[in-house]
Amino acid sequence: MTGITIFETVAAMREAVAGWHAAGEKVALVPTMGALHEGHIALVTEGQRHAKRVIVTIFVNPTQFAPHEDFKKYPRTFDDDCAKLVAAGADAVFFPAVEEMYPAGFATRVLLLGPAAVGLEDRFRPTHFEGVATICCKLFTQSRADHAIFGEKDYQQLKVVTRMAADLDLGIDVIPLPTIREADGLAMSSRNRYLSEEHRALAPLLHQVMQDLAARLRNRDDLLKAVTEAQNAIITAGFELDYLEARHAETLAPVASLADGPIRLILAARIGSTRLLDNIPV
């Protein structure tokens, strides 16, 4: 027994949402792949601020995994996830089988440009956002929810999904929530469970370096010099740095100075076998 309503089919979810809408109730959707932590629960709480009903999706989406990424090893903790959602007061879980989401003959993908093609995550995971956008487009139309809640930790993903929802007139309001962090500054992530004790102690340095970099940029330090020194600090500490860049906060285009618009610092780095993402505004 999970103690929460579980929809395993699109039809069941749509029937419930239609009833809620008929009663004048707004619906918020929180898309996840499970392995829930406090950051996900904060998304539920944010959804409750905007809607009477909150549906959390738990679906490990195979189309956003590259061939070298082990889809089968992604943590699956459904009963524990449901217990957390009961405690948070979520209304329902959408827990479809792969065959429900991608039935035989499925042959459609969402083609992306804009923030999905700026040389950040897309440079390292070239098929990732196509899978994310396809599944989010399906979830948005399947649920017919009024709002979708996304965390800012996966910042490029947030911008991709927001652009897609607007461009395709999906009729859903994508609401961002600032990154939820551990007490030492590490961004909460399902991946953190894979950190060794030694690496977990080192991981908060990423946020510290970005904070220091943001302060330098606000003080009008030379952008290229400040970013390069921050990159070197991360590499010297033992991380394998994929990128640490200053980008325009909306378009994710490269910037040369503070005059180029609102800036977001965006980072991906590995420590051991764990890849960590983070970002902060300047």
From TrEMBL:
Keyword terms: ATP-binding, Cytoplasm, Ligase, Nucleotide-binding, Pantothenate biosynthesis
Record-linked CDD domains: PanC (cd00560)
Pathway in which the depicted protein is active: Cofactor biosynthesis; (R)-pantothenate biosynthesis; (R)-pantothenate from (R)-pantoate and beta-alanine: step 1/1
Subunit organization: Homodimer.
Catalytic activity field: (R)-pantoate + beta-alanine + ATP = (R)-pantothenate + AMP + diphosphate + H(+)
Organism of this sequence: Bosea robiniae
Name of the protein in its database record: Pantothenate synthetase
Coiled-coil portions: none
Keyword match Aminoacyl-tRNA synthetase: no
Name of the gene encoding the protein in the UniProt record: panC
NCBIfam families xref list: panC
Primary role: Catalyzes the condensation of pantoate with beta-alanine in an ATP-dependent reaction via a pantoyl-adenylate intermediate.
